[in-house]
Amino acid sequence: MYRFYINGIKNEYHFAELCRLFMDDHQFEVIPFNSPGINSSLLGENSYLFNSSGSQGREEIKRKLYWVLSDITGAEMPWGTLTGVRPLKLAFQIALSLSSGDETTDQKIGKTRAEMKDMYLISDSKLDLLMDILRYQLDNVPAPDTCEDSLYVGIPFCPTRCSYCSFASNIGTAGEIETYLDNLIREIEYTGSKYKQAGRKLESVYIGGGTPTTLNPEQLERLITSVYHNFRIEPGSIEFTVEAGRPDTITQEKMDVIKSLGIDRISINPQSMKKRTMELIGRSHGPEQIREAFKIAEKTGFKTINSDLIAGLPEETAEDFTRSLQEIIELGASNITIHTLSVKHGSRLKQQDPEYFREKGRLVTSMLEKGSRMLYDSGYLPYYIYRQKHQTGGHENVGWCKPGTHSIYNIRIMEEKQTIIALGAGAIGKIYFPERDGLERVANVSNFRIYTERFEEILKRKDQYFTGTHDSDKK
């Protein structure tokens, strides 16, 4: 057991999160105290003292803690001392604070890079990536309009549950899915009526999950038509994405319905093109169904197709990963999101191998380095980024796009400068308050059966988007 005594702090959270990048919880303890001048020789074996004078700030203490952890374990983290999930948001804040108003983009990026290197000990490769994303957004993405919001609609059903997944996705019967959809449309109608009274407008809509294409063609049409009607959207007037997701749920009839309703953006998410991997993670389809899904999407005429791949899946080599990526590029995905496997507490993989996310770090680093070179060489640019806890090797998730095909919804949800209205089981919305640059959450229950049982209560929660009252989230 390593003990890290930190003087002058009230909350150990940020320091414990940094320790968790290097060690399991049972291997360390962070101990706050307030006794300036304590002698470190009195602390005992495997004990370390930080900020003995009480004069150091949080980031300085974290840097010193980082080097001690690195010395103990022999490891270094690619994101240095950063433990938050939105590094780009931090980069924007730093760029704004350092800007004098008349710099070029290159000058802004240069200042931001230097500051983040010194402050957070981020590796050069991650700084290169982050600054490329910052550049893309500075050059291509307008600042959010304070009168605009985005809408998320959740379909929590999947054909099977993947081994790495802890999301609130469920396998429902035909009757349960129909009942859920009836209630979801009531939620859309109720929220839409309130939205009309508020006099606001949507910038983007995202139907996600789960797997929205577990719905049949008639159900998809009901759902999408309800969104258009109740939020007064003209087809084709705003960004509208349907996460088709699992290839084993994609049919020509479903794609025809989606396209006929004016939607040009879908997702087809293989995660891997290796048949053995699909079996290991619990997928009920093979690579041929993925190829067929792309053929259907191309035939139907969708302009933008996103595909997700995961680096670090069980038993995969770097060559397996790059072969999957090369095929997705050749199949014509204009957006490709590269996820680093996050071994979540509720997943089967976490139960089977608690140390997986640390053991595979070097392999995943190789996958990401090779994948990035392939994407740059193929004309893709990184445009958004986020991180999760327990990501293999301490890495990140990155969205890549052919220039001009980026998802505004993905950008807005990560920059946290816009209200995201979220409907359906498992959906978590956020209300943005520009006057204080703050957010408040509005969460629906995750289980679709509980969503059905408590539907009237859930319906009333939607008032929070329009009254600013969030008592249910503070209990």
Automatic annotation (TrEMBL):
Ranges in a coiled coil: none
Any one of the GO BP annotations: porphyrin-containing compound biosynthetic process
Domain Radical SAM core: 141-373
Recorded GO CC terms: cytoplasm
Keywords (A to Z) from UniProt: Oxidoreductase
Enzyme Commission numbers on file: 1.3.98.3
GO molecular function: 4 iron, 4 sulfur cluster binding; coproporphyrinogen dehydrogenase activity
InterPro entries cross-referenced by the UniProt entry: Coproporphyrinogen-III_oxidase, Elp3/MiaA/NifB-like_rSAM, HemZ, rSAM, rSAM_horseshoe, rSAM_sf
Pfam families: Radical_SAM (PF04055)
PANTHER family in the record: COPROPORPHYRINIGEN III OXIDASE, OXYGEN-INDEPENDENT COPROPORPHYRINOGEN-III OXIDASE-LIKE PROTEIN HEMZ
Protein name per the record: Coproporphyrinogen dehydrogenase HemZ
Gene that encodes the chain: hemZ
